[in-house]
Amino acid sequence: MRIAFLCAALLTLSGCGSYNYRPPAMGQGGVNAKVIQKPVEEVWTAAIPALGKAFYVINNMDKGSGLINVSYSGKPENFVDCGHITSSVQNAMGKRDYSFPGASAYQEYEVMLSGELYAYQRKMELEGRINLVFEALGKNETRVTANTRYVVTKTILVRNMRGQTRSDKDSIPFNSGEGAQFPGQTECRATGALEKRVLDMIQ
Q1: Phi and psi at residue 173, in whole multiples of 5°?
Q2: Tens of pLDDT along 49-65?
């Protein structure tokens, strides 16, 4: 009741609210390799058109070393976990609640800080460079391994009720099965979904 009374009192002046960030789950990463019961030459030959038809860009290939490098650019939410954000604000215009994944490609929301309301526009982008390594384990057995270098970019535009704005743009790199933290609070971790999607295309 004390909190409710305080909020009611603040509403006559500016507003009140709450903000919470839940970090991503640990222990993610998944499996980044598969074994195919076919000769390495056959697997390699079939992989190139399969990857080219998907949403990947083939950057380079080296058949001698069994390496194909592909890249993905786009929304991060399906491939990285950046936690979850909730924000609740209340002022003379009423109460608004926001709840969204930290990896969401675009989100508009509000935050109340020290009784002052701030409007956020938040954008998240992912660049993934995937090294696919083809290894012959035997005459009719091939192992394909996918290792990814992730770069997640966060862009935020903040505006207060006086019309003042500021913007921030930061990028964090990390590898398959790992994660990194932006300056401040947001942390992102690879889920293994990107590696799995690429490996599923190789038969």
Answers
A1: -105, 150
A2: 999 887 689 999 999 99
The model's pTM: 0.87
98 burial type by CB count under 10 A (0-12 exposed, 13-18 middle, 19+ buried): middle
Per-residue tokens: 189: 């971790």
- pLDDT 10s digits, 74-130: 999 999 999 999 999 999 989 999 999 999 999 999 999 988 999 999 999 999 999
DSSP string over 66-127: TEEEEEEEE--TTTEE--EEEEEEEETTEEEEEEEETT-SEEEEEEEETTEEEEEEEEEEEE
